[in-house]
Amino acid sequence: MLPLFTPQVRVDFFITSDCPICRRYSPEVNRIVRDFPKANFRMVYSEPGITTKTAKQHQKEFKIMAPFLLDPKAVEAKRAGATVVPTAVVYMGQSLVYRGRIDDAYGSDYKWRKPTSPDLRNAIQSALAGQAPKVKETKPIGCTISL
Length: 147
Fold this sequence. Notes:
The protein has about 150 residues and is an alpha/beta fold. The protein contains four helices and seven strands; from the N terminus they run βαβαβαβββαβ.
């Protein structure tokens, strides 16, 4: 029997260095990166005027364990359909299979609560198993990306 082929899984976190919600999610982002070593992660800084120095400082301050990409003109954000940060996007090979929130810790009232729906974790688990996630899109809450 031939082994099943699982396409490469990549997760992009669209963030900015100054969004308080992105900052609040940093520990969970690090846990996700640690908990899914078979996925490829990158932080996509979609903010005007972002510099390598600012991104490196942000990564150091929040101990972010994923490499980063600067997206000052929001080209990557537009391609992925991300309009707010933080937004997580999961790809299986070249196919976008999930876009949305990390979890439901923030509601439309912008109040932090204990999350009950680990949307991104579920999407990554499905993708790593070679299956499309059951939930393909959720609404992220956060700061608007300047497009």
